[in-house]
Amino acid sequence: MKCPQCGAELPEGAAVCPRCGAAVVEQPRPGAARAADDDEPDFVTVLETADPAELAVAQSLLDAEGIDCRADGYGTDDVIGLDQLTGLIRLQVAPQDAEAARALLEARDTVDPTADSA
């Protein structure tokens, strides 16, 4: 590592530059900040929609199957006194649940609401 002030090579773990006396602040290594968040899983998007009804149905289906999910990108706009969703909302699940969640949501898309259930 080099001194940010004078450019001198610094000994490992130095807090002060031996040449110019400048305080040394070690820059985090790429990926070091991620290490603190490793206990929280990355999430995988299984649905993108701007339709609040579709989002509610999908969340309900996943919840009923015990699949934890979260909506990312959720926002509202006040349009003539009514809050309305803005933009696409991504429904996300943990990576280990992605395949089951996608299968469940695809099965929902193939159900014919006009079919006779008898």
Description:
- The chain is built from 3 helices and 5 strands; from the N terminus they run H-E-H-E-E-E-E-H.
- It is an alpha+beta fold and 118 residues long.
- The chain folds into 2 domains: 1-28; 44-110, Hypothetical protein rpa1041 (Alpha-Beta Plaits).
- Strand 3 (76-79) and strand 4 (82-85) form a beta hairpin.
What's the short story on this structure?
By secondary structure, this protein is α+β, with helices and mostly antiparallel strands. The protein has helices at 32-35, 52-64, 98-110, and strands at residues 44-49, 69-72, 76-79, 82-85, 89-93. A hairpin with a 2-residue loop joins strand 3 (76-79) and strand 4.
CATH superfamily of the largest domain: Hypothetical protein rpa1041
What is the helix fraction of residues, given as a range? 25-40%
Distance between the amino and carboxyl termini:
74 Å
Which class of the largest domain in CATH terms?
Alpha Beta
Number of strands: 5
Question: H/E order of the elements?
Answer: HEHEEEEH
Number of domains: 2
Strand order, largest beta sheet: 1-5-2
Instruction: Tell me the number of helical segments per DSSP (H or I, 4 or more residues long).
Output: 3
| Mean pLDDT over the residues | 75
Shape: rod-shaped
Annotated CATH architecture of the largest domain: 2-Layer Sandwich
Name the poorly predicted regions: none
CATH topology of the largest domain: Alpha-Beta Plaits
* Oligomer category: single chain
Question: Class by helix and strand content?
Answer: alpha+beta
Query: What is the rounded Rg?
Result: 25 Å
Strand content: 15-25%
Q: What does the main sheet amount to?
A: 3 strands, antiparallel
